[in-house]
Amino acid sequence: MRWSVAEVRVVNAERSHVLAERARVASGAWERAVGLLGSANAGGGLFIEPCSSIHTCFMRFPIDVLFLDVDDTVLAVYSAFPAWRFTRWVRGARRVLELDAGAAGPTAVGDRLECQPCAS
Prior knowledge:
Elements: E1 7-12, E2 17-25, H1 29-34, E3 44-48, E4 63-68, E5 74-81, E6 95-100, E7 113-117
């Protein structure tokens, strides 16, 4: 998934659950490196692509992490993933969605996500 917009709305299509009203798309190396660090990102999230593993070093709070394939099918879910940890490498992952802890809700492996550009 490639976007020409800076923010997208993310919905779990299988469960009709809104994951993020305004998820940012990390478009540069600095945004990828920083991730959600220092972010008070209530109701939002961050897409990182390409990505098949992450770390939460220097984070001050836990986050939900969803690994997605090229069709935006969830391959792995890390709920309330704590600070100072490393995920495993997720085979087939092309991108990751980082969310506030609890935002992933009932999302499970095999669910498909849909993204729409946010209105300005």
